[in-house]
Structure formats: C-alpha cells, structure tokens
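User: Sequence recovery, please. Input:
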C-alpha cells in the first residue's frame, strides 16, 4: 500500500500553486513513497540495544586549552597608532555626527 497517494500530491501541488499532469502526480507520488519507505527502514533499525548517536564515530575536541598569555598594555597597543587620544585609537570621522 502506498503511503503517499496521487490525490495527496495533487492537494499539495494545488496549495503550492504548481500545475502538474496526472503522469507527474503519479511519478512524484511513487518517488515520495520510496522516500517514506527509506525513512521507515531507518526507523525500523532502531532497537533498545543500539544507542542513539549523532555521529557514527565518537568526536573529541582537538583544540588546545585556553591559556592566558602576555598581553599588551594600553600604552603599548597605542604606541604604533598614527593618532590616539584619551587612551583610545583616534580615526577620521566617517559620519557627520559628533
């Protein structure tokens, strides 16, 4: 028995304002039926002794630990700036606002 009928596909096509011939409706219904059966076969494979996973292989973090290192002081950071004012970088205004 088909899980998806041509009438259901015709209804969805009408809702989506898609014109389809009877042959297209039958073809799409058959294709959707294959998809539904494929999804069902995956669902059938689930059992209590098989744990649910998002990946077939266990993943682990490969990044290094965050370690606080030396940082620049405000004066050191501003020492190479072309212009600074009040301990901040000074840049040309790009808007006509104050």
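Assistant: Recovered sequence (98 residues):
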């Amino acid at each position: 028995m088909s899980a998806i009928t041509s009438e259901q596909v015709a209804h969805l096509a009408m809702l989506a304002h898609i014109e389809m011939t009877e042959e297209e409706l039958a073809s799409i219904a058959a294709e959707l039926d294959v998809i539904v059966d494929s999804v069902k076969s995956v669902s059938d494979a689930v059992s209590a002794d098989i744990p649910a996973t998002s990946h077939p292989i266990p993943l682990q973090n490969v990044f290094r630990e965050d370690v606080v290192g030396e940082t620049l002081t405000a004066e050191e950071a501003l020492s190479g700036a072309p212009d600074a004012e009040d301990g901040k970088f000074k840049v040309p205004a790009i808007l006509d606002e104050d």
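The chain has a mean pLDDT of 87.
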